[in-house]
Amino acid sequence: xxxxxxNWSLVQSFLAALDQGSLLGAARVLRTSQPTVxxxxxxxxxxxxxxxxxxxxxxxxxxxxxxxxAESARAMEAGAHQLARSVSGAEAGVAGTVRITASQPVxxxxxxxxxxxxxxxxxDVQVELVASNEVANLLRREADIAxxxxxxxxxxxxxxxxxxxxxxxxxxxxxxxxxxxxxxxxDLLQHELVGADRNEDILRGFMAxxxxxxxxxxxxRTDDLIAYWEGVRAGLGIGFVADxxxxxxxxxVPVLPQLPLPELPIWLTVHxxxxxxxxxxxxxxxxxxxxxxxx
Length: 295
Fold this sequence. Notes:
Shape: globular
Distance between the termini: 35 Å
């Protein structure tokens, strides 16, 4: 085994590649280049004297050794994050209540584990979480910080892009056993679809693909994003959901991965005047660092 000084960034690249399944995905999460991630993994393999990934046409396949090392690597990652947070957060004596607003999937799926880590870093900060898409929440001071998929245009709000959400077409395995799997986009019109009620984003998406659909094409329609996801999970049809949400249920699988679905930015937004608040600034900085950058 190589005895040169150990480089923590190699472990970061290893874990990102393991989680994302590709060098490109890892590079996006780490906000670096694909060659840099590849170089880090090669260097780590050299230092450890093992092969961590098999390169296949579908991405990176972790070896049994990589899976064995993952637990120790994650413990190392957690320790590094805890050390950094202890220095910048808990020791600063930040205290009080911070009200955060986010869309339903972000509030119900993405944020809870992040907030659990923040509880360790900022133990004297209480969080009030509001699941809402209304930009007016910050303007009316109904919330201190917002996570949104659109950048607010109001001059009194400060927005920082902290990540990207990827979308996919998904269906439950039970539905696909009953109805078959679509092979090309035009096949979707022969399937039961899960759509929105008043929101027209999905209709516009079909139009962008050159396919005109009507509300009647959707067997189940709702603007409630959690109800939408539960409809897909229940086998009501094929729906379009965030990849990070779909990964929470192994019974839901992707279909038509070639669909050119848009990526949605994640904007961390705060009112310009209250950004000077010590507690809000601490939570703002924590979320900017800890919310996964690629989802």
